[in-house]
Amino acid sequence: MYSEMIQKRNKLLSEKVIKGLKMRNMDGYYAASREEALQIALSLIPEGASVTMGGCVSAAQIGLKQALIDGNYIFIDRDKEEDKRAAMLKAYDADVFLASANGMSEDGVIVNVDGNANRVSAIAQGPKKVLFIVGMNKVCPDADSAMKRARGIAAPTNAQRFGLNTPCSKTGSCADCMSPDTICCQILITRYSKHPGRIHVILVNDELGY
Question: Could you tell me the end-to-end alpha-carbon distance of the chain, in angstroms, rounded to an integer?
Answer without folding.
Answer: 17
